[in-house]
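Illustration: Alanine aminotransferase 2.
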Amino acid sequence: MLLISKIPPFFDPWRWSRLEIDEGVEVKDSEGTKRRRATRGTIMPKPLDHESINENVKKVAYAVRGELYLRASELQKEGKKIIFTNVGNPHALGQKPLTFPRQVVALCQAPFLLDDPNVGLVFPADAIARAKHYLSLTSGGLGAYSDSRGLPGIRKEVAEFIERRDGYPSNPDLIFLTDGASKGVMQMLNTIIRNEKDGILVPVPQYPLYSATIQLYGGSLVPYYLDEESNWGLDLNNVRQSVMQARSKGITVRAMVIINPGNPTGQCLSEANLRELLRFCLYENLVLLADEVYQQNIYQDERPFISAKKILLDMGLPISKEVQLVSFHTVSKGYWGECGQRGGYFEMTNLPPETVDEVYKVASVSLSPNVPGQIFLGLMVNPPKPGDISYLKFTEESKAVLGSLRKRARIMTDGFNSCRNVVCNFTEGAMYSFPQIRLPPKAIEAAKKAGKVPDVFYCLKLLEATGISTVPGSGFGQKEGVFHLRTTILPAEEEMPAIMASFKKFNDEFMEQYEGYRGYSRMLRAAPPKRHLLWAVVDLDELGPGCDIDGHRGLYVTR
Ligand SMILES: Cc1ncc(COP(=O)(O)O)c(C=O)c1O
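Result:
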């Protein structure tokens, strides 16, 4: 029998490395074949044992696929109908792909069809011509790596799109194609963050790509709060305060992120706002990271999308030459919704050539962005034109998607605002609704007792009752004591009224339950708190091979 001075708080036969034991003790790893030597009283963990992996990886939080999503997936496996509104993934919720781009990419994927004399019976001539055009831009078709910055011909098409949109020249050498916008954002944050003293200003609430990546690369997130009372507006006084606070902690603020239109908040930045924040970037020496992936998703007419690049160049010298800007776009959003194709780009403005070279070098490490995604991007920036055979169909399809999203944004906002203790700003753009849920104190108390953050508690109850899978506002950041949830506006238009009715029924009953003392006590009776304190004696002989310390067997106490 081996005596171990310190009894571990719990015993798990697969986690030997957590045991503190005497120096020099050898442990059989699996079935006695491998042996590891303990040092300084602790068995050395292997490099990929959880306790020894990169701490930054462990600290990353990504609520969009967090606890709620996992529970929803479990319920789905058990046969419950789940409405996944947690990710802006339009095709997963039934959006049909646009015909023309799929025809072109299908032909690029199966180029032998182009040699078939009947190809013209199935595919329109402009799709055939476009497929030939894209294949001619590759060196070996879709199965060959491209330049690490993307195919030069498609980067040229992106530059022409930007020129048409902004009215200023764009240089294809400063445009890199990526596997979705996320990869570009990660690459730029990696380039900016040098250590934990480097701060990145991020809007709160924010899309957690930013918090997760800043954590992963070991930087510091500097939050600036958007103002819910003024329709999630950006108030630069808040940003200034955040910079001052960060500086007082020794943080060098190096970049500012804007998401325009906003995720999860849906707001569109005005021209005045953009001018003000570009001036701020000049004054504070910040690079502006402009996440403009929702630029086609606008559901009001007062504030059309204007790119940060256009305003930067409109402002003239010195700002137009001084402020460094990186802008991101994607095929995952807009009326395309081609999330699975992983196509995106970023454009760099006012970055010195040496830095662009470094970014190119790092992009080369992963060889090439995926080529079908690049072709989708080419099609997005260069869609059918008036006079092309596919123009009418393409326009009808894209208008139908955007028109329906506009209607769904309205149905959702109105639906939320009709619920007890729920207030919601109109979704001006993007794909989300972010209602504030005013949780009664007794609901907050109940959440604490259940060991849950209050908005997680509410969203889990909503999921169990209705099958609606949302993301708690805490995953995006929110002011202390204020609670939200995020849902996409993507469920099918015809299903929307029923979904909102089911939400309202759940919410109003929830509020009824927790607002009155009697309601709260009824809940406690229905779900009494569970107690987990259990002690047990584990006999190592029962645990099978691999549970052998220095040839001894023994008893452990565990709880
Ligand atoms: C604000 C924002 N930026 C970037 C992305 C990433 O998009 P992609 O699919 O292009 O990586 C998303 C996805 O939802 C997003 O909401």
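Reading the tokens back as a structure: DSSP finds 19 helices and 19 strands in the chain.
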